[in-house]
Amino acid sequence: MLPPAxxxxxxxxxxxxxxxxxxxxxxxxxxxxTAGVVAIAVTFALFLPTVFAEVISTLNSTVxxxxxxxxxxxxxxxxxxxxxxxxxxxxxxxxxxDDDEPEYGLLSWFAMLxxxxxxxxxxxxxxxxxxxxxxxxxxxxxxxxxxxxxARAQRAMGQTFLHWGLHxxxxxxxxxxxxxxxxxxxxxxxxxxxxxxPILGKRTDTWIGDLxxxxxxxxxxFGIATSLGFGVNQIAAGLDHLGLLPNSTTVQVIIVLxxxxxxTISAASGVDKGIKFLSNLNLGLAALLLVAVLILGPTLFxxxxxxxxxxxxxxxxLELSFQTLPFMGDEGASWISGWTTYYWxxxxxxxxxxxxxxxRISRGRTVREFITGVLLVPTLVTMVWFTxxxxxxxxxxxxxxxxxTGEDGTIDANTALxxxxxxxxxxxxxxxxxxxxxxxxxxxxxxxxxxxxxxIAHRGDPNPPRLTRIxxxxxxxxxxxALIWAGSVSGAEGAGMTGLQAMALLSALPFSIVMIGMCVSxxxxxxxxxxxxxxLELRIRQREFVERYSDxxxxxxxxxxxxxxxxxxxxQVDGRVAxxxxxxxxxxxxxxxxxxxxxxxxxxxxxxxGQPGQQDGHRRGRxxxxx
Length: 627
What we know:
Layout: H1 28-47, H2 49-87, H3 106-125, H4 128-135, H5 149-164, H6 166-185, H7 197-200, H8 207-241, H9 249-269, H10 271-296, H11 299-315, H12 317-321, H13 329-338, H14 340-360, H15 367-399, H16 416-421, H17 427-457, H18 466-489, H19 495-610, H20 615-620
Helix pairs in contact: 1-2, 1-8, 1-18, 1-19, 2-6, 2-13, 2-14, 2-15, 2-19, 3-10, 3-14, 3-15, 3-17, 4-5, 4-15, 5-6, 5-11, 5-15, 6-14, 6-15, 6-19, 8-9, 8-14, 8-17, 8-18, 8-19, 9-10, 9-17, 9-18, 10-17, 11-15, 13-14, 14-17, 14-19, 17-18, 18-19
Organism: Brachybacterium epidermidis
Transmembrane segments: 29-48, 68-92, 104-128, 161-183, 211-231, 251-271, 283-303, 344-362, 374-395, 426-446, 467-488, 500-526
Main location: membrane
């Protein structure tokens, strides 16, 4: 078990004191309302399965058809948000303290997030979805129906990549990143509400936060129960294909209860034991099945196909991302709501569960590492998986003329994978591996979901009580089993599961608003921290500059000051010397003048003494030395 994350005494982002959220305990309001909503829905489905399915499906169709454009635009915006954050300075922030190291190794981390994210869906739809878009009546995209077989097959793979590629994982990035930052960087409880703290402030731990957690719990519980229904259908179909057990309602209920028991044991053992072990085991089995089909199937074709599929996806990325088919009329609207919009709502309904779980296991990684790991790596693996499984099915259909459609002209998603594997050598063995793979994905989805739901129900406790973990794991399986049984008894098989699936999609609508708030909150929080880091870096650079060049600057300044002082002293000294010299020269000049005047006067007197006759004349004459 992981140690509980301690609350810090200090907010590392804005320096404000920790608001001291309430201590970990069962949030009775959140738990009670969630249980009430689920109880009402299950009771309705058990006793009036047909009516329940009709009401919920009508409501779901109305909502989805009305806001399909909103879902398409929103999810594409999530892709842009994730890419911008990863490539910007915001991506350098670490999800944890600056000296924290990743809690799990890269392989274990990737295995857990992949298994929790969509592992069971990849196995279920790996061959079924490309075949449906290529050959199924009503499943072919309206804008691809006129294409010839090779072009339609390529379009089928591109459309599949759209539904399972960057868009799907960008939804998980938005939820997971917001939660991981609040939990590991700000040291808040593991819960949805705290991801919105930058915009909710003090209202985070009030009824508003409770409402956010309730929406997350309802969507997660319905999503997991519906996923279990898909898994059960495929496991039962696989056992029937192998000739082990017939595909019946009784067998399906037994499978649900058996797998739920295993999931409960795994959930009770915690992340480090059961969930981690099963995730690594599942990744190994998935890799084994993938390599086996690649080798036993049309290997060269698949290698060429994966390169071309990636190129087609990138080339038509923007076109597919904004595809709403408005000029196809009702047919286009129906197809988009049944596939693309359905997938976007489905991923958003799962995002609380997957977001919390991958955030829980991502401490110590930077924002850029988180986005790269969650967005790009699973997308590439998903592309390879669908190319190998779906590409093999399309190859068999195009070049070996194998018809995978049923009598009604549609593709049976439950058996499409097993029908494809049966065309290969060792087909029975591969089908057996696929059944085990689906079963383990089934368990990892249920136990991971139970762990996450219990954390939310206990105000974000990273290590919730074992008893309540067992409750959530059991509840999801029991709901799925009850609805399968009710649908069979009422004669409307699948009615209960269809209605429950619609409930999961409806819960995605209010949560989409929460996800917009997550994007805003994450951007605000990361931007604030980057600004703080930039100011600190500027101060550090200034300090290093002073320390590095202080001696040189001191010497230079000292030389300049000394020179200036010397110039001033020289000027002053020169001025005083000049004045003294001038005075001395003036004195000398006066003395010389006096000497010459005296000499001339003496000489003149002597002349006069020798010539008496001229004495009077001289007296009457002008003195030459008088002025």
